[in-house]
Specification:
The chain has seven helices and no strands. It has helices at 5-28, 42-49, 64-77, 82-107, 110-124, 132-150, 154-169. Helix 1 packs across helix 4 (82-107) and helix 6 (132-150) packs antiparallel against helix 7. It starts with a helix and ends with a helix.
Length: 170
Amino acid sequence: SRRSATEIRARWMLYAIVGVLTLAVLMYSVVEQLFDTNFYFVWQATALLAGDHPYRDFYEMGSPLMTLMSAEMQWVTGYRLIGEFLIHWTFIVAGVVISLHLAHRLSHSWWASLTTTLIAIAIIAATPTYHFPKLFFYPLAVWVLWRYMEAPSVRRGAVVGLVTAAAFLF
């Protein structure tokens, strides 16, 4: 079905509002999100930036993509914890917005979708942020696979493979 430009703008505006609300909740509850596991990749990233090599100089726990992303953020932010939180928050916000999109596609009701999303945002306020790969990759995988099943193609199959590989490397 064709959508009007106004409807598309309204949908993107709603996604942006939900994203900003999720980010605001995460920033408000940052004190409750400080766990030692949030810093799991910081020491590996610091070792990488110091020139150490995984498995030769330190044991890499099996998350090479996350370690590289953490090292990049540490380099960009100047060895501060805000880099880790920016990674976590970005992935969580994206996961919530994708989940809202999936809820609307499944229910065809904005009210039901927003209600479940607001409940999820309230739960996220008390969820440690180191769970961000689960909060991002599960909705992303469902969305990508759903699109592939709607109209299978080589390009969509490649996207499914890319998301699977990224989730594996996280």
